Structures
1.
Amino acid sequence: MHPIRQLKQTIIQLVKTMYNHDFNTEDLPLSPTRKEFSGDYTLVTFALTRAAKTSPDQIATDIGDRLVQDYPAIVSDYNVIKGFLNIDIQTALWVGYLEALSSNPLPAFPRLDERVLVEFASPNTNKPLHLGHVRNILLGWSMSKILDRAGYEVVRVQVVNDRGIAICKSMLAWQKFGGGSTPESSGIKGDHLVGDYYVRFEEEFKAEYSAWQTTPAAADLVKAAKDKSDPQKPPVSEEGFFKSYKNTYFNEASTLGAEAREMLIKWEANDPDIRSLWSTMNGWVYAGFQQTYDALGVTFDKSYYESQTYLLGRDLVDKGLDKKAFYRQEDGSVWIDLTDVGLDKKILLRSDGTSVYMTQDLGTAEDRYRDFEAKRMVYVVADEQNYHFQVLFAILKRLNAPYANGLVHLSYGMVELPTGRMKSREGTVVDADDLIQEVIKEAQAGAVDRGESGDIPPEELAEVYKKIGLAALKYHIIKVNPKRKMIFDPKESVDLQGHTGPYIQNAYVRIQSIFRKAGEPTSGSSLAGYDLQSGEKELLLALSEYADHIQQAAEQYDPSHVANYAYAIAKAFHKFYHEFSVLRAESELAREARLHISSVTAQILQDAMHLLGMEMPERM
């Protein structure tokens, strides 16, 4: 049994006897003793004062005395500091736990009769995946693996935004300027090729808009805007007017804008030529996406496409009207009033009967429930959509959807580079494929600079660099709490001495090096009689907390708990490695015990990194 569980049970039983009162684990919080104090675990006694009718210090002393006297096989010593009881657990108990942990180092969670659907990625087919998508994908993938480990049945899905005006911009630019180019003829990956034409459209539109700004019609609009400007506000400048007028120009006066809108109308009317072009170009993009997903090591159980879901949700609108949850305006539009829950009034159907994004999301949620009957759905979407999901979840609760209480928005902050924000339309986005290659190159360059790859067979080097580079990329992103904005620095991510994935991999590689020289620990060997030293016990204590961190990550939808735990374990092992010799241990028993500690460490590190989507090299 885990020492802390045994200690908790003992304390609950003892306190009940001492004070003739039933307490639960919440009343008797136990946590690892802070490093500046002596002890393994600390009991907070303040909740016992009413039942004990004495001071926290006296309660702690009384409990400590009884633990040492009545349970000497469990507790060896104690000390009291201001009502906190710091407890030393018998070394023999830790040694027994090490033996048990060596046989089964990874926590086992009972399988739960609950299915969780995790939606992540959400790419657009007018551009390749970029750094922002990478954070989304890595959060979704690691979260799905953590939930699976915590006992849930997990379904992984993506929603592909494959229709709309942005897609038509790429298609129109290819028609006008592509010259029939394909991924095969150009040698350009499909999603990159289509993304290039999206950027080309924006460049051509920018040139058209700039030329229009020199026309008399534009001058007249600027003059009218200045004439109508509020005298209480700063005067309208020509530059300010053209900046704010850009979308209006696209929708009302632009030749390119009119052609793109006409293409969208034809798409919605199922024009065979437009649909054929759309299908072809989207096929290029899907093939490109798949290559990136393969490189990142992620898969999906099902993909939903906006072209198939954008008309969904109208039956829910009818249902909401029947339930009086929605109301119809005089112009025929349908709304919901959410002001009573601190939100606003939201349109669900326009007066012409067309749906909005909210309606589509309602229909997609219902569609997925029919597909998988998952009563918990986790949406991995950037924090720019926080309000959208508050409204979506509130509407589904108003409709009494059977899954409404299990909706979670795993909101995450923007990813920036040291040079600042990225802009898709200007082609300044950091491409996911380029980023993957860059971190692999950084990993290779670092290994060459350190001269550390000499003992790795040449045929294995490429795979080792790939594992190190991808761990650098993934860990650098996942270690940050999702709600925080972050800056990604490729060079910093591969630092073997920093808070990085390669630093954790290095701890694992060190252990494999020990095993190559000393052999692995003997399975089922007895460690009875070994006197664990404080540094060894410190690492073992940290290893014993793995299950808690998985549970915490699953409950809070935050994989950074597992990431930072893995770093703490790696750091503790590096300290252990420098303090204690395994190959030249003072006795065979010490050597065997340290081999067991090293083995458990390696397995937990490997498993934790696996939950985060990272692989461990044997050498680096």
Note: The first strand starts at residue 30 and ends at 32.
2.
Amino acid sequence: MALLSVKNVCVGYGGFMLLDDISLNIERHERVCLLGRNGSGKTTLMKLINGEMAPDSGTVTRSQGVATARLDQEIPAGISGPVIDIVTSGLAAKGRLLADYHHAGALLAEGRGDDARLLARLDRLGQQLDAENGWEVSRQVDLVIARMGLPAEAEFSALSTGLKRRTLLARALVSGPDILMLDEPTNHLDIDAIAWLENFLAAYDGTVVIVTHDRRLVHKLASRIIEIDRGRLLDWSCDYPTFLKRKQESLDNEETRSRLFDRKLADEEAWLRRGVKARRTRDQGRVNTLLKMRARRRLRQEQPGGVRMILQEGGRSGNLVMAAEDLGYEYPGKPVVRSLSTVILRRDRVGIIGPNGCGKTTLLRLLLGELPPQQGQVRLGSNLQVVYFDQLRDQLDPEKTVFDSVAGGNDTVTLNGRTRHVIAYLQNFLFTPERARTRVKSLSGGERCRLLLARLFTRPANVLVLDEPTNDLDIETLELLEELLLEFRGTLLLASHDRAFLDNIVTSTLVFSGDGKIEESVGGYDDWLRQKEAAAAPAAVKPVAKPPARPRTPAVKMSFKEERELESLPALLENLEAEKKSLLSSLANPDFYRGASAEVAAANSRLQELEARLHAAYRRWEDLEERQERAAAAGRKLKP
């Protein structure tokens, strides 16, 4: 029996049907990814499933005893208290016990209070946790808090937006519901936290329903994809690559059917204009058919138009864009950048990678000359026209309208020498004329992101600096932005946690490795990961480091060593996959967390290492097979 059933549900706003007669069942252990454009109804559907709202018509039915939890994309108002209290608030009485035990332990550790009374309180709370079987949950809470990098005793209301989101994500994760619903959970998470979340959700024993723009997360988790398109639900029971292929085929077929229908309708309309002999029954039947075709055409919902972005490229900059020499900067007691020397040339595409709070934004400001270094110097090139997309969207005044945010009091904008009305320009970014008069503070996260892009792209640029531009964008808009950046002929600096975005765009990376050290690497995120793995290999088998070479056509003939390596790779992959499966099984078992926390941490670390080794091994297998095929083809050509 399904955990939850949605049947013939309709939800409308102002005469517009957001969800139109939709039905679906959600089963146990499914990994469901909800896809669709911003505003298509994904969050509304999750609210219906979670019981937060009722449909206009239709029913939502849960099996008896099914528990759900949802992480909202926006931070609810009115939440206050220490972080540990927020995280454990979804655990009812057991959660209050854990929070009390944690507070008492913190007071004792900090020497704030009577030690004897605190020890007695801890003993009493510990006995209650024993009786409630609470230690298993306690380990899970501690693990999630540690992985999210949360200050357990800090006041929630005083946290940054990113830390608040991570606290609410931790609350959803530790509650362990039958159906866990996450709306853009990777926003404000760094790459390490996203990788941990992937593994956590892969091993999660319940059902997961997730809305995300992170294509790597969808690729790894999704066993079923539900797309919301023009009020309808399209159910694709497949993984993400298969979905992309089938989706394109479906769109192509829809376009063909529509084109044939419109051609037939035009022919019938032309026939009608030539005159009809009404007395003939056969002709009257043809008229009736035409009327039905007109009705079908009126009801047909066209595929909505997408974002149409145009980037104004400025004049040609000098060959040198930025040069940092022995750059250093630190906050009290915290080094941010230490002895960095790097050169950025025209048309370089540099990705900046590192955990939250490591100093990526500070590094960008240093390189741009907005922040004077405490050590070393930064030299900027000539004729630089910089456009800066800031992570916090601080360039947008929340009290201004969308219209004024772009136009600055004017009615027109000039793009590549052509003048356009602001309303027409904003429609390219999916803002209707009515929405253009809305204040910025009323916009969703995705709308604010599109608005900032619209504002920045009115300015000519030959240097683009993007600080976390992908948060809140739907996948379709994200892919359009990728295409635009790939065509950009200037220089790009990109700080992002989106691994696919980095891999598709950047040609080199600056990676924060801790204690203010920054490593420079050729390629994108996956390239850096392979180089990191190679550097961490045992000394006996560690390859000699060589400077990156330019791509060249590999030799056709395979060596004996390569042939033996190709033969051995399937067995290696099977062993690695078996170990990964065993680890995931252990991490999915609640009893595993009763052991030492060091064992849990070691298991998670080993899982990440296995993922990296598997990725490298599969890549190597593909390369060797390709060489084998080339060698065979060359051999066939040599035969008389």
Note: The domain at 320-529 is CATH 3.40.50.300 (Rossmann fold).
3.
Amino acid sequence: MASDIRPLTKNEISQLQNQGCSSSDWKNIKVADRFNPERIKSVHFSGNVEIGELEKTITFYGGLRKPSGIIGAAIHNCKIGNNVYISNVSNYIANYTIEDDVVIDNVDLVAVDGESGFGNGTEVSVLNEGGGREIPIYDHLTAQIAYILALYRHRRKTIENIRKMISQYVSSVTSSQGLISSGAQISNSGTLKNVKVGSCAVIEGAARLENGTINSCSEAPTYIGQAVVAEDFIICSGAQVTDAAILSKCFVGQATVLGRQFSAENSTFFANCEAFHGEACSLFAGPYSVTHHKSTLLIAVMCSFYNAGSGTNQSNHMYKLGPVHQGVLERGSKTGSYSYLLWPARLGAFSTVIGKHYARFDTSGLPFSQVLESEGKSVVVPAVNLGTVGTVRDADKWPKRDKRKDPQKMDLINFKSLALNPFTVQKMFASRQILLNLQANFDKESNYVNYGELYLDRKNLQKGIELYQMGIDKYLGDCLIERLNNNSVENLKQLRAVLASDTNPEEAGWVDMFGLLAPEQTVEEILKSVEEETLKTVEQIERKFQDVYERYPEYEWAWVVKQIERILAKNIEKATGKDITGLIARWKKATETLNGLILKDAEKEFAASSMTGYGLDGDEKRKEADFRMVRGSYEENSFVRSIKNDTVEKGEIADKLSAKIAGCD
């Protein structure tokens, strides 16, 4: 913005009038000292207007260059910075601060009417359409703050205090003057009412935007595309909303992509979500929630690291008290094509749903399972996903697909141990005991046992027990090996010192706060500080969670040590080399077995049945040759090779460390 402004001279007023300009009062127009009147044509001014320098040339798509300036517009009560390009405004621009290097070209209306929070403070009814879990969205809302606001309603004082903090922020940004920040571009668009636009954002062909904020920065420009309609919204840096998407009362997180006619209301999407074609209502979507297909309805559900199959459908009411029921899909869940779920229900972490289910089940105690439809029954197959390709590939791909470029990443995501971690492994300990209890009480006359409203096949009980134990051994061994590899161990004293933890392990268990893995007791302490008003601002709460995020390795190891002590039935200070080599042997066996199951699962992709449709005009040899050219071979597949190499490498590490530690006793 221009720092030194002055009134127009008589000659400048005369020149502007000759160029088709007019004003309700020329005295209210102020300009930069080096103002160039030649670049303003066919403009009507009203209210108080300031205009900066107009010296640069702007380069448009295709290489076309035009001089900065204002042509064909009505400007009311605006502050306009240096080197802007404003052209062909069919209605008017009113009550805006327009910063340097902004482009506004071929738009209908850009205006602020009265006081506006620009989407901040909008109440979004996530997870339960009937209300009770509303989140007041604002510019800096994180997945973790949203998680507390939606799910910790039983802590009334906590919620009240956080909402007060957010209200204070909303008051601080409420204004009768809008802002289009430096470098933003708005072109070929319809109406923008009460919309704040961040730096370097691009709005191209949007139909209507009302009461919202588009946050953006030069490192992570936000893009709003063709025919988009959005009202009562906050869109974060690096996000893309395109192709006739329709949003109402929505929060769109960093690097999230919504498009291809997708529609959503009363929904949140945190970092790296993708949503195309389908529909969302009261969706509480944590990081990496993905829905790509038509006829997919996500309603009244909480999810994260989730993949919705085509035609996924959900129901949140039973025609009694209305749409008041909710569903929870814990991290890593998947729903198969045309799956149906009747809420209320809860699906355990890294589990899969296939078929239609009217049972109101809870498999949170059986993670890594599959829930299948069989002869009208809902059947659970426990732990089977521990040995599938999909689980491994998902955990491997998410860190690589973090598209956030903003230096300030809002959502806290522990990319280490996405699948196996204290949150999921604590459930495995309990899951194994659940299956053992079911096995002990199994009716020998029946092939199935009831697990809530689900059925569990007898033959899957023992397999589930074994798989959960392997998952436990694999995770504890991964952490143990990492610890030993990162520290020098020459004798028993050093071994015990390396394995010791300075942090007291949390007994209350772990929680998954939309990507942030945290000891439950630590979270409770933070919330207590909120209640006692020791933490007075949302920024202070976020810093506390940032500390938890940074201390994750410390908390994790303390928890792992506690589990090792329970397995050994002794304190880690009394562990022997033989104890540790025993754990390493269990880790090696679990790794080999699980990797073997994963390879067997991968091999199905190269079976003869997978070649159907290949080599259409030839014999079996041509079919196989065509398949190999398109899909490659099992032996040459990069994923298969990586799993095979992992088995060999882990075996070598186990043998080397075991030999070294055996000498410590």
Note: Residues 577-662 form one domain.
